[in-house]
Design goal:
- There is one protein chain.
- This protein has helices at residues 2-54, 88-100, 114-122, 140-157, 188-195, 211-288, and strands spanning 72-78, 106-112, 129-131, 161-170, 176-184.
- It is of the alpha/beta class.
- The chain has a domain at 23-199 and 221-243: ATP synthase, F1 complex, gamma subunit (Pyruvate Kinase, Chain: A, domain 1).
- The protein has a five-stranded mixed β-sheet, sandwiched between helices.
- Helix 2 links the parallel strand 1 and strand 2 (106-112).
- The radius of gyration is 29 Å and the shape is elongated.
- The two termini are 35 Å apart.
Length: 289
């Protein structure tokens, strides 16, 4: 009975921890989703600025210049630093490997999170850079700046440089889905989407100053918003995966507590019955004597 009581106590304490982690995951999901939603208007503003720049003429955004035989492909893969997230890291690592294996030239990976780092290393794609996962919305911006600085260094040193992001993003109802995107150079599909926009007023836009300088600034903002959005979506998906894992754990703990309660009641009943039989047997023995 003492052993069962200890197991019940341990299961109850574990259940309290699981409920706390559920509450934290729910709160984190909300703040990261709000961060993603807040970027939508900013992204639209940048897109309209790019649209205005494109209206001034054909600009070299895609980089149609000379290509190297072996381009340098850099992919940032977003994972997690903490566990209890199910197959979150395994899924994004496998998807990243499948997305990159057909790219021509040199393939280099950067990992955001220690767990996805080791999974990529086991798959033969050992990341050359490791970034720690932000633990709050305010910590996303320094990470994005760090990635952009290192990406710009690569771009300056490589004539044919391509930059990708791979991450998990949460679904509307439940779960998450893997996503990959080529951020630099922007592809033709992206440019077609920008030029297909409609200006919100009848007044035609005008670009003040050098158009190419404005375009470069807008492209930098586009890269910042895209990486920020990918990081926030990855964090929201991570907490959604952890929330699902905690819900399964809570269900298992409740079932275990119910089984322990039944076992304890059965053992307690059998112990009381045994004691009553001993008392009755002793009483009868004394009566016969």
């Amino acid at each position: 009975m003492i052993s069962l009581q200890r197991r019940q106590q341990s299961a109850g304490e574990l259940g309290s921890v699981v409920r706390t982690m559920k509450a934290l995951s729910t709160a984190n999901i909300s703040q990261y989703q709000m961060a993603v939603e807040s970027l939508q208007m900013y992204y639209r503003t940048i897109s309209l600025g790019l649209y205005a720049s494109f209206q001034r003429g054909q600009l070299a955004v895609i980089g149609e210049g000379a290509r190297q035989r072996k381009p340098t492909n850099v992919a940032v893969i977003f994972g997690s630093d903490q566990g209890l997230v199910g197959r979150f890291n395994d899924s994004v690592a496998e998807f990243g490997q499948q997305s990159l294996e057909h790219l021509p030239g040199i393939i280099e990976t950067w990992a955001v999170g220690e767990r996805v780092y080791y999974l990529l290393a086991d798959a033969g794609l050992t990341p050359t850079r490791l970034f720690h996962v932000p633990n709050s919305v305010s910590a996303i911006t320094p990470l994005v700046h760090d990635i952009l600085i290192k990406s710009e260094q690569y771009r300056q040193n490589n004539q044919d440089y391509r930059f990708y992001i791979v991450h998990n993003k949460p679904l509307n109802d439940e779960g998450y889905l893997q996503s990959s995107q080529q951020l630099y150079p922007p592809d033709k599909k992206w440019q077609e989407q920008i030029t297909a926009l409609q200006w919100p007023s009848e007044n035609l836009p005008q670009v003040v100053g050098a158009t190419e300088d404005t375009l470069r600034a807008l492209i930098r903002e586009y890269l910042f918003v895209s990486i920020y959005k990918a990081c926030a979506e990855s964090l929201a998906a991570e907490n959604a995966s952890r929330l699902a894992a905690m819900q399964r754990a809570e269900k298992n703990i409740d079932e275990m507590l119910e089984e322990l309660k039944l076992s304890y009641n059965k053992l307690r009943k059998s112990t009381i019955d045994a004691e009553l039989f001993d008392v009755i047997a002793g009483f009868e023995a004394l009566g016969r004597r």
